[in-house]
Amino acid sequence: MGKSVGNSVGPSADDSTGESLGDSTGKSALITGITGQDGSYLTELLLEKGYTVHGLLRRSSSFNTGRIDHLYEDPHDEGRSLVLHHADLADGVALVNLLRDLRPDEVYNLGAQSHVRVSFDSPLYTGDVTAMGTLRLLEAIRASGIDTRIYQASSSEMFGAAPPPQNEATPFHPRSPYGCAKVFGYWATVNYREAYGLFAANGILFNHESPRRGETFVTRKITRAVARIRAGLQHHLYLGNLDAVRDWGYAPEYVEAMWLMLQAERPDDYVVATGSATTVRAFLEEAFLAGGLDWRAHVRFDPAYERPSEVDALIGDAAKAHDLLGWKPRVTWAELARVMVEADIAALEAELSGESVRVDRR
Ligand code: NDP
Ligand code: GDR
């Protein structure tokens, strides 16, 4: 039996009822990357649907559960629906043990070294966690002999230099160690589907953001800076390439697509995107406007934020996800910029006034 550990929450697999919230399915899911942006929204979605959710937590010297703390359940309570397990995508044996013990109905592989710029500084580590980690998880499913469905978090970064619009038929041309690692994970997932009949689906997701986005990705870096500049805590914001074009969507909508892929009759691969894109510069302008600021007075160029090889333009064509899964995005990038600025201003005000800051649930 998988052991709940540390600041863990929720039940062990076989004492769960899955009846604690919403429309109970009695299903269980294992999420790698549960502490990340997408993991937190997906956990909320699955709990609402009545799943028992197990999360893979990697050991950290400081707390790394900030995005899911609001879902915390006392580990001593009966009938919990969320439990975290210490493991790591670098540890294949731990993955086999966990899967064999939990036997989840669904596995969502969201864990990764997910920062493109960082992948140039740590290419081997990125390859180990993001590429080999996916293979370890697939092999752990096979080795443990369980009947489960798996979602692989593939990325528009796999398209890289391929001109937009990109869809499922667009050839991959990755431009970073991260992009190369995701291409490996994509094909490993397809191969386990073809070789072993595993229900394995790739979601090729384009950039998606939220108030929970990591602080070093460009959208959040910008919206957080707007709040801090307004509060007089910083004056300059240093950025790299402002000409890059990205198709930015809203993360809570994108985790719905992940779930839909695993409910389909057959496993398949889908692009998930809004189809509407803009430049970093335009996002910057919109976010600063939302904060009542002029970006030109504050933004400085720093080549440290440029990539050795850049991905110029990503614009997704999600017609397949729309037609086969009924998935459709609703939030535009400009709305997203405003929502994120408002959330960062509110969070900073709460912090400065000494209130405890809770994770924004939007
Ligand atoms: P985040 O960077 O917010 O979260 C990454 C998660 O992976 C965190 O929970 C992190 O843990 C975990 N992780 C990192 N290294 C390991 C490891 N060695 N073992 C286990 N877990 C690990 O990413 P997002 O939520 O934004 O993205 C989720 C997934 O989707 C990622 O695979 C990403 O590459 C992919 N993706 C994201 C897109 C986006 O626009 N957001 C678009 C397309 C794909 P910790 O909290 O401890 O750091
Ligand atoms: P990306 O997101 O590389 O698309 O990967 P990021 O927000 O890091 O960069 C987007 C674009 O902005 C440019 N940029 C900067 N980026 C960062 N981080 N910091 C800066 O200061 C800066 N200045 C300009 C970048 O050059 C780039 O063109 C994200 C991640 O979530 C991946 O995990 C995911 O797979 C892809 O989106 C789809």
UniProtKB/TrEMBL annotation:
Q: Cite the binding residues for NADP(+).
A: H236
One function term, GO molecular function aspect: GDP-mannose 4,6-dehydratase activity
Record's keyword annotation contains NADP: yes
Keyword check for NADP? yes
In residue numbers, the region (Disordered) covers 1-24
Q: Which cofactor does it need?
A: NADP(+)
The superkingdom of the source organism is Bacteria
Q: Which InterPro entries match?
A: GDP_Man_deHydtase, NAD(P)-bd_dom, NAD(P)-bd_dom_sf
Domain NAD(P)-binding positions: 30-340
Q: Which UniProt keywords apply?
A: Lyase, NADP
This enzyme's EC code(s): 4.2.1.47
Q: Catalyses which reaction?
A: GDP-alpha-D-mannose = GDP-4-dehydro-alpha-D-rhamnose + H2O
* Family under the similarity heading: Belongs to the NAD(P)-dependent epimerase/dehydratase family. GDP-mannose 4,6-dehydratase subfamily.
Q: What does this protein do?
A: Catalyzes the conversion of GDP-D-mannose to GDP-4-dehydro-6-deoxy-D-mannose.
Q: What is this protein called?
A: GDP-mannose 4,6-dehydratase
Q: Which organism is it from?
A: Streptomyces tubbatahanensis
